[in-house]
Amino acid sequence: xxxxxxxxxxxxxxxxxxxxxxxxxxxxxxxxxxxxxxxxxxxxxxxxxxxxxxxxxxxxxxxxxxxxxxxxxxxxxxxxxxxxxxxxxxxxxxxxxxxxxxxxxxxxxxxxxxxxxxxxxxxxxxxxxxxxxxxxxxxxxxxxxxxxxxxxxxxxxxxxxxxxxxxxxxxxxxxxxxxxxxxxxxxxxxxxxxxxxxxxxxxxxxxxxxxxxxxxxxxxxxxxxxxxxxxxxxxxxxxxxxxxxxxxxxxxxxxxxxxxxxxxxxxxxxxxxxxxxxxxxxxxxxxxxxxxxxxxxxxxxxxxxxxxxxxxxxxxxxxxxxxxxxxxxxxxxxxxxxxxxxxxxxxxxxxxxxxxxxxxxxxxxxxxxxxxxxxxxxxxxxxxxxxxxxxxxxxxxxxxxxxxxxxxxxxxxxxxxxxxxxxxxxxxxxxxxxxxxxxxxxxxxxxxxxxxxxxxxxxxxxxxxxxxxxxxxxxxxxxxxxxxxxxxxxxxxxxxxxxxxxxxxxxxxxxxxxxxxxxxxxxxxxxxxxxxxxxxxxxxxxxxxxxxxxxxxxxxxxxxxxxxxxxxxxxxxxxxxxxxxxxxxxxxxxxxxxxxxxxxxxxxxxxxxxxxxxxxxxxxxxxxxxxxxxxxxxxxxxxxxxxxxxxxxxxxxxxxxxxxxxxxxxxxxxxxxxxxxxxxxxxxxxxxxxxxxxxxxxxxxxxxxxxxxxxxxxxxxxxxxxxxxxxxxxxxxxxxxxxxxxxxxxxxxxxxxxxxxxxxxxxxxxxxxxxxxxxxxxxxxxxxxxxxxxxxxxxxxxxxxxxxxxxxxxxxxxxxxxxxxxxxxxxxxxxx
Length: 832
What we know:
Distance between the termini: 134 Å
Number of strands: 33
Largest sheet: 8 strands, mixed
Radius of gyration: 39 Å
């Protein structure tokens, strides 16, 4: 007799919470029954009042499988009480009370019906995976709940979620915890991290597990290519087992074959991607072989490219995978990495929203009416840089005008695909029937797994040929994968239906394919860097990319690139089509470019026809646009510094005097510091740059006149009184004051004998600032530096007189400096 599933123990508390609150968090480990039992148990709740439950699953495979399991539990046909919806496929009816959907389906429903009429509960299953669509759908559901449907329930379920943190983000939503029905799993680590290709390492570990353990084996690999290689290796070694791949692109029948026991009673080995971590119970599994890696999309906001990275899994993923061996009884997990490596794994995966391409999310938000993404109540806010990049792309595709959705954007949002492909399909549909049919094939090929091996090269035209040949003859060419072609053809059929286009198996023009790709990827137009056919290109976004050295597209001068990795220096092109230069006309812009050639130290100006960063033609400009010239020259000064300008001593002293008054008297006087001048170049320097064309010309700018323009007429007059250039000393000499731009008192360097009879230190700044006296010996060396002349005469002068009168006996050293006549001359000269 089967033990009752642990979710039943948590049901009373969960039902109580849902009666009292509209948002609840459920923590339940794998095997608890949360996905397949809980929705059925909630159907009779009074607050549901006969309305539907919509449950979100992050993957199509899980959505189909969970729906089938619930229908089977009720003894119902799939599509009656329990059904599912995934893209291009649904099993629902008017009787359906529980709909299991992938996350994009819910977002589409919310856009069409923000109040979710007829829905009483939305369940987010496996929320710990933090998919982009789940975060977006939750944000939209919360808005609908607060503005339109205060009776709408939201239940967030996960096996590994940090419930308290999520509860806080959800305004203290209650957290219900269910214990799991998990048998002990013996974890066996590798002594050291293995070397060699992953398929070989996994195949060796599976063979070992088959020898050492009983029961079926579930092995995790990063992707489909690794699964296929491992499968080939194992087929050559074992002829008495059932080998079953498991990944998201498979048909429902093929997936069920992997999930259910082998009909012939053989031991089963399932080779799966990370899709098998959660939701699915693979019957018979007692052993897990975990390679420790997953293929994860990483979006680089700086380059605008998404790349699939094979990276180490996190600790929570490793625990999820190991738990698969303990669903039915004690199990074993072979981890193909060392215990030391395990101790260094990151604890949890990052939410997809912080690393993903956010163009689809930003388009959905624009359709929802959001202008500022920061206004949305996020569990994790999207990065500002990625949002800016998404908005730039959507504007380039014509979907946004500023932050507002355009009519083209509204049309794009209705298509259940990435905005890039939506734009491709809409434009082609408006062009011609033949283009629409070809666009359906191209969009399907871009959206699904590549049907050709990597050795086939990057030419998308070969993929279209393979698809159309297979569709016409049921035979493959170019070593195409028939299963992949079947999926692509099914998707293309859906796009043709939406476009009202017929099936077309005629030979496709490669340049038309390139045009279609350019509609989806206007930022990935690529121009060959040289005529050498070396495979090196520059993208319209500015980045360098390359083809492999043997690629059939090497001789194409222009490419429209659909798939590539971000790379480090140059990205590698995986999928592209040749592009005729005439096709670029709608993308071409003409710009007058004014720039600075730092090597020659001169302005350069030209009129360019461009596609993004790619220059199609360039002609010199005779007359430079004034505004662009000034902006460029100001940037040169910012880059190379104010030293470019003609600073002489007179200009430096004038600036120091004016800056002292800013420091002494505050903002009533302008700031002439380096930072302030750099920040305001367009105000004070720009009017004087008309004749500057080369670096040497900067020194010819009348800098004093330019700086004087920073002062008002009244200030120019006050400057002479408040910060005079010279002071008249008792001897009658006009002695220059030396000002410093840091606001320290100006220095008056004067021969001591010229100051006889003066009791107090001279003042500037309307009597507020004493000058700094440098009292000099006849040899022009400082005897004293002081701002207190009276104290000097009284206290310091007697000692100085005693020391210096013998050395400088030709100069007067009176005992009473207060009453002695000041003089510039020697004693003898005075008598004469």
